[in-house]
Amino acid sequence: MKVRENMGIVLKTSIFSAIFTVVLFMLMNYFFSHNWNPFVSGHSNNPPITVQGTGTVSATPDQSDITFTVTKTEKTLQEAQNQANTFTNKIVSDLQKVGIAKQDIQTDNYNSYPNYNDQTAQPGFAIPVQPNQSQTIVSYTVSENVDITLHSTDKASQVIDAITKDGAENISGPNLSFSDAKQQDLENQARIKAIENAQAKAQSMADAAGIHLGKLVKIQEGDQNSVPIVHPLMMNAAVGTAKEVPTQINSGQNTVSTDVTLSYQTY
User: Fold this and answer.
1) Burial code of 157-183, b = ≥16 C-beta within 10 A, e = fewer?
2) Is 10 exposed, middle or buried (0-12, 13-18, 19+ CB in 10 A)?
3) What pLDDT sits at residue 219?
4) Which residues pair with 56 in a beta bridge?
């Protein structure tokens, strides 16, 4: 008889433990699935706090681009092409002498067009022919734009002096920027600063309002911006001057900034 009673007690205890375990599991699952926070009341009357933080990092650019144009006009198209190619090859050779790799010199636009005896015609564009009037091609022009990528800003002055001395036209640059690796690193630094700035704002608002920050429920990042802060380019080199003055490039700094938005529950 005692054995039966003990077995009944054990059975009841086992059933109770099983039911308790199931209920406990269901409660835990509910709380975790609903982001339960023991420090934040689910029915808190306090409004959430949403703040925006900004992070800014400045650094010296480690990359730059310089562009120039080669233009040659001759009586025949072949002669114009030969002149342009010879001229460009000379510039490329001189750039290699100052340490610019050939793969960092790229032709991004090549154009050829005839020139007519009508001086009002725009190069490369057809013009209407008046009755009893004929047009005659008097020459051909070949032009090409060349882009130079520098993986260090230190050589920008030498490059500009070299291509200026060779007679390149429409020299533009240097366009100072960050390499992909450095841009990514600066964005990460700016992002950390932006989050710290937003956290400090949120804490300050909570302290001023006499409430407490709870769970962080939302984080959103804005666009990253790279803002150049550079000194004007001083292009002092000139073809045909009696005394050449070296070009001075002031790299200055570029700034990377980003914004983040944080939202907190309060209690």
Assistant:
1) bbbbbbbbebebeebebbbbbbeeebb
2) exposed
3) 94
4) 257
User: Cα–Cα–Cα angle for 70, 72, 74, nearest 5°?
Assistant: 170
Q: Within 10 A of 57 (CB to CB), how many other CB atoms are there?
A: 19
Q: Could you tell me the domains of the chain? A: 41-62+178-267 (3.30.110.170), 64-176 (3.30.70.2970)
Q: Is the peptide bond before 128 cis (omega within 30 degrees of 0)?
A: no
Classify residue 2 by its DSSP letter. H
CA distance 139 to 141: 7
- Using only C-alpha atoms, what is the Rg of the chain? 36
Q: Using the 8-state DSSP alphabet, how is residue 54 labeled?
A: E
Q: What was the pLDDT predicted at 241?
A: 45
- Annotate 124-148 with b (16+ C-beta within 10 A) or e (fewer): eeeeeeeeeeeeeeeebbbbbbbbb
Among 203, 201, 103, 213, residue whose Cα is nearest residue 151? 103
Which tens digits make up the pLDDT trace of 203-261?
Answer: 999 999 999 999 999 999 986 565 544 434 434 334 444 455 667 677 788 999 999 99
Euclidean distance between CA atoms 24 and 37, whole angstroms: 17
Task: Look at residues 106, 127, 131, 103 and name the one whose alpha carbon lies nearest to residue 115.
Answer: 127
pLDDT in tens, 159-169: 999 999 999 99
Segments of the chain with pLDDT less than 70: 1-14, 16-18, 20, 22-44, 118-133, 223-246, 248
